[in-house]
Design a protein that fits this description.
Helix content: 25-40%
Number of strands: 20
Shape: globular
GO molecular function: oxidoreductase activity
Oligomer: single chain
CATH topology of the largest domain: D-Amino Acid Oxidase, Chain A, domain 2
Radius of gyration: 21 Å
Number of helices: 10
Order of helices and strands: EHEEHEHHEHEHEEHEEEEEHEEEEHEEEH
CATH class of the largest domain: Alpha Beta
Strand content: 15-25%
Keywords: Oxidoreductase
Structural class: alpha/beta
Organism: Paraburkholderia hiiakae
Distance between the termini: 26 Å
CATH architecture of the largest domain: 2-Layer Sandwich
Family: Belongs to the DadA oxidoreductase family.
Enzyme class: oxidoreductase
CATH superfamily of the largest domain: D-Amino Acid Oxidase, subunit A, domain 2
Amino acid sequence: MKTIVLGGGIAGVTSAYYLARDGRDVTVVERRAGVALETSFANAGLVAPGHSYTWASPRAPKILLKSLFVEGQALRLRLKADPHMWAWCAQFLLNCTEARSRENTSRKVRLCRYSQHQLQEVTAREQLEYDLISRGLLYLYRDAASFERGRTHMSILVENGLPLETLGAAAVAAREPALAHARERIAGAIYCPSDESGDAHRFTRALKEVCERMGVRFVFDAPIEAIEAAGDRITGVRTRAGVIQGDDYVLALGSWSPILARPLGYRIAIYPVKGYSATFPCAPEHRPPEMGGVDENHLVAWARFGARLRFTATADFAGYDTRHTPADFTSMMQAARELFPQGADYTQPTYWAGLRPMTPEGTPLIGRTRHRNFFLNTGHGHMGWTMSCGTAKLLADIMAGREPELDMTGLTLR
């Protein structure tokens, strides 16, 4: 059975890995010169079931509306003359009720926990190195009111089996000494001892080498021009390098998935949400944090990868534009310097911006379509690193005719 995986990001490469383990002849088609050069390149690096909350919540509409008039917001909506954006926003608003927010968050945390288990198994089985830190993650709150909201919301994650602890400011500083000087700025934190961090780009490159040893073929520098179909079957993928054909096909193109699927008659509710990261070198004289986490009031995440410290922030609804300027990182860097003034050499930033493929619900789309040999593994949003191995395993089970190990309700195109 010859399978063509469309996309060489973390979703595509993990899909290729699990499908190859099933004995399939797998080819990955990627428009860039290597794997994980888009959304997976310089993301937050947090494997974070403890941050599985859906973005579509009762508070979200007010936050997005405010961003139209106030600069510097962590969530930024830039309305465009794009009917696909407006359609996505309408579906997003429908999911901003208390009931749907709870339902979508429950699905996300169950998937994230399952996926983290798969990631740990793959890491051990293949002996992968990617700056993994397994000391848990801290979710910081700057004031008592937001800390209380965080403690209230954590109940939904605990109900779904996630271990969480609440820490006062002194306990936060004891857990992460690099935050000791910022103790007066912290009301408390939620600590998830099972959460982790690691370099998603390095992981994907390492897994690609494993895939190649298993016989997976990678076709790079091959932008996909069209997916060709006849009746209820996909017949090939037209690329700049020619038509590539197989027995079945997997769409793992992230934010570009709806564009390629649209001519086939699909209306896939995925829209790009831009995120920003800044990565800095650490020298022996610096005091970087020993574990990752999130400043919840500013929605700034941090993670350490060996001698590098990365900060990520902002959810920018700006279409497919990945351009950025130093001004886009101002709020992020203010929070970084407040929390870790000696954390890294802040004079040597490496800036980056990438597109998160968001669904209105915040959950990905996995499995079958109305074309018999066309499957999805896309729409992972801001949790692609956390969800990648789990969704790939579920996809492989579905394509092999096995019963998935997780309830697929809310995770399919249907």
